[in-house]
Request: fold
Amino acid sequence: MDNIKVTSDIDYEVFVDSSWRGFIEGILETHKKVLVIAPTFVADRAQLKELCASSNRVLFITPDGEAQKDFATVERLWSILGEQEFGRTDAIVAVGGGATTDLAGFVAATWLRGIAWYAIPTTLAGMVDASVGGKTGINTLSGKNLVGSFYSPRAVCADMEWLVSLGDRDFSAGLAEVIKTGCIKDLSILDLLEGVSGIAEARTLSSELVSRSISVKAQVVSADFKESKFREILNFGHTFGHAIEKLSGYSLRHGESVAIGLHYAARLSEEVFGFSQTDRITQTLLKFELPISVGREEFSWPDLLSLMAGDKKSRDGRIRFIGLRALGEPDWIETASPELLFATYEKIIR
Ligand code: GLY
Reply:
């Protein structure tokens, strides 16, 4: 499989279907000191303790999931970097899902105003989205990813070996981002997913799906690294999805929330752009057991509206969405009336 190039603050490559062990060994040889950041189950499975046993290698075990993306964890990591006297030629390696790569990238961006970091994503969502593109950050009480930095890794290694033991729920959650990519840019992704019967068969296409999704992301990020506008197309499904994710108290996976957000954005696109292929999107999401609707009680309209108003894409109090004119033709929805937004919510309530 060809490596995928990203041009941004740093030009780097994403290695798809390449051995993560060879990748990390190369990093350990290149940098004098290396801090490896990973959650427990990844560290145990990959025997990272053994790998970091020699001097100048430090293993930091993160809390699981979104909990690791907090200021207390960042402070602990800064303390370790200080105690171990990490300098500008040393490096950080993230081995984990999107939360771990977001956290590690942010710590790398802020230590000495930026040291090298590398990503070894271990989930499908991490491979196709979080690890590529240089968005790093943590969560605060005000919301998800509101504190962060655009700071690219030096290289990313997406080894399909990790996906073998990834549970179906997480694999599907990652597929939501893959389906999003198919909707905005690469329709062959949708064709591929329509040709399989469900999650098990989709797994056999992992390396092609990952490679296609990362290629789209690499093109978009290379054109607009700091999201002056074009990069926002990657947020199709995310305005509503982020609000759902936050309101669920992060009990829904990011990808599950995005799946609901894709349905919302597709329905909104019907009214705004005359989009006519919502069913193709929802059938694909349902095939992989992804949610496409929510209950009125747990997800009330006033709560969702207030969270959406705080979305990073909002401008002057206006909630902005990425919609679709057609599959592969994303466009901005900036002036939808409150009545239309509510009517669209009514369409996706179960
Ligand atoms: N996750 C969307 C982006 O990286 O821009």
User: Anything to note?
Assistant: Residues 168-347 form a domain with the Dehydroquinate synthase-like, alpha domain fold (CATH 1.20.1090.10). The chain has a mean pLDDT of 95. DSSP finds 16 helices and eleven strands in the chain.
